[in-house]
Design brief:
By secondary structure, the chain is an alpha+beta fold. The chain has 3 domains: 8-103, Arc Repressor Mutant, subunit A (Orthogonal Bundle), CATH 1.10.10.10; 107-212, Beta-Lactamase (2-Layer Sandwich); 231-329, Beta-Lactamase. Helix content is 34%, strand content 28%. The protein is built from 13 helices and 14 strands. The strands form 4 sheets. The protein has a 5-stranded antiparallel sheet with strand order 6-5-9-8-7, sandwiched between helices. It has a 5-stranded antiparallel sheet with strand order 11-10-14-13-12. Strand 12 (286-292) and strand 13 (298-309) form a beta hairpin. Helix 1 packs across helix 2 (25-32) and helix 2 packs across helix 3. The longest helix has 22 residues, at 209-230. The radius of gyration is 32 Å and the shape is elongated. 27% of the residues are buried.
Length: 338
Amino acid sequence: MSDWLFFSNHMHVLTAVARQPDLTLREIASAVGISERATHRIVGELEQDGCLRRIRVGARNRYEVNADAALRHPLHGHCTVGQVIGVVGGKERRPDIFSAAFAAAPGGTVVADEDGRLVAVNSAYCSILGYAEEELLGRGFRDVTHPDDVAEGERARAELLAADGIELVREQRCMRRDGRVVWVKLRAGSMADPTTGRPMIVAHVTDISDRKRRDEALAVAEELFRSAFDNAPIGMALVAPDGRLLKVNRALCELTGYRETELLVGSLESITHPDDLEADPDGGHQVEKRFYHADGHVVWVLLSASVVRDSSGEPAYSVSQIQDVTERRRPVAAPLTA
């Protein structure tokens, strides 16, 4: 069974086809109130999961609802697609198909009027924001949006209402009832109110707060590494597996006498004394070797390297620490004798 989830539009398409199997894709799109492109995608997902069957009749396709597959497909808890749409396989129709599908949607789902006032919310959306349904109905989107994201949200709402058949995907912050900030991902589109014909907004809402916290922690860690790398008192370099220099710090430039751009077009081997080319550290080992300074003189260095591996265990790059030990390597003058 596929890993995609049923949303209200999937239910609308199934119901439309169950009622009129001879509808074309364009007619299904018109009946449901969504774009042909979205209809084509949804029909494909329903076919993939076995809930729809496409039959070629003459020059056109005929779509049939597969009752067995629909009755098996879980929607929410013990509720199945077949139980919700109730129009397949001669089953008794449910009196309020779309309300049941809306309430059972596993993700946050919300409907708002053209002014942004919430006219319908499901339990998943209420859980994300920590409000009861009756506390949200009648409020505006801006009432539950972080103040810094209100202006962008209003621009997105105006864009949705100005063009038919578009979908907007954006991330924003919302304010929970307890005052905490929650990051959400919105997938929003517009539809016509079946009663008045006025434009409305339908949005699926996913809580992405955990992902945002991980991203923020990673950004902090990367900034700390960058600062420590750039400001280290000894030479530092990130080296690709093929020996190319990916990043160097100021101390390494000063140690070798080369500009950053000059080092990045070469490698550590290109400035290494020929007799020391084989003296490269392996894994976490250290080695002393000679570099040629940009002005031609030799600089002795202590080079330490550690390998950073990617998720598959392959070497991604190595972090090299390079310390000038020239003074220590200078021969000690013999004492003068009387």
